Backbone:
């Protein structure tokens, strides 16, 4: 009996690190239809917030249960200067993509963890937006139930832009929208 139990435990432990990583496909991007938009001069910002279930379908991970809320941003830079994104302006204690991947590494094979880390790095908002181009991606923020209010600072060699936005999660109606 003990040998069988030991063998079963060894197989269970070995199986813990054999899972591959499979993120969701394009059908998990419906939350983008709810994006809010704001412009300042030649710069346009779009922002959307996936729900907990949309996040799990997209990433395969329960990030909301970990207090992590991905915020999708798209920056269109129609100016003639490169922009630098100040990620800390959104959330001073944001999670880097590598940090989110590392926090969720358990249970994945080496290849699975590398795929997980690569997905998070590839889907993150780039720090630089070249002139005349659009870039999008996620910033992994601390969970804010209901409405996520945030700032985003962008800098070029000669200008600074500060966006302030609010993005509501579906099913939540903030009191300021009730008109009372």
Residues:
């Amino acid at each position: 009996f003990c040998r069988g139990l030991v063998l079963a435990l060894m197989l269970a432990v070995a199986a813990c690190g054999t899972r591959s990583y499979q993120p969701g496909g394009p059908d998990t991007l419906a939350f983008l239809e709810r994006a809010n938009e704001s412009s300042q001069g030649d710069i346009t910002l779009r922002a959307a917030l996936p729900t907990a279930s949309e996040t799990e379908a997209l990433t395969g991970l329960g990030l909301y249960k970990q207090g992590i809320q991905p915020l999708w941003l798209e920056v269109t830079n129609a100016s003639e200067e490169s922009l630098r994104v100040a990620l800390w302006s959104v959330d001073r204690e944001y999670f880097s993509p590598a940090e989110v991947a590392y926090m969720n590494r358990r249970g994945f094979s080496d290849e699975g963890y590398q795929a997980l880390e690569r997905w998070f790095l590839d889907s993150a908002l780039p720090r630089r937006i070249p002139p005349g181009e659009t870039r999008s991606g996620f910033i992994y923020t601390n969970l804010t139930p209901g409405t996520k209010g945030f700032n985003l600072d962008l800098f070029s060699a000669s200008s600074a832009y500060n966006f302030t936005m609010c993005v509501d999660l579906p099913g939540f109606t903030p009191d300021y929208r009730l008109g009372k």
User: Anything to note?
Assistant: The chain has a mean pLDDT of 89.
